[in-house]
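Lab manual, section 2.4: Encoding a predicted structure.

Procedure: take the sequence of the chain (180 residues), apply the prediction step described in section 2.3, and record the output as structure tokens. A sample record is shown.
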Amino acid sequence: MASVYDIPVKTIQGTDTTLNQYEGKVLLIVNVASKCGLTPQYEGLEKLYSEKKDQGLEILGFPANNFLAQEPGTDEEIQKFCSLTYNVEFPLFAKISVAGDDKHPLYDTLIHAIPERLGEGPWWKDLVDYGLTPNPKPEVLWNFEKFVVNKQGEVVARFAPDITADDPRLLEVLQNELAK
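Recorded output:
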């Protein structure tokens, strides 16, 4: 299986790159969207980033339009929204697909590394109650699902979309990885 560091991605400005620039750091990889009920999570993610970036945490946002077209904008529009609305300073990448036949190789790698997400609470039921059909496991359930990658590039945890940046379960995993 490919290392997350070697998988080609594009910055939100359209520059081809990989995640190898983040080797030796703890990564929190999140599929984000600007028109979702969970979009306010940007605020908590930015707060977490500002508190922990000097300790070696990088939060990497990957906009995705897989769920009810909740990320319809262009990369430029997404970047502007994130900057103006939530003052996002953590790195954002070009919009990708995180589910389905056109799933980006990064998300294929993340999902296969950890098929089960932690903290899946009422969110699944809420989606069903709204008449939606959530993706079956192991696929990404919705926007703002979170993957933790350790300093060696190994996927070590996966959290459900409704686990926020200040959730003690997420913070414990991040702190343990940062301390290593």
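Check your result against the sample. The CA atoms of residues 145 and 161 lie 4 Å apart.
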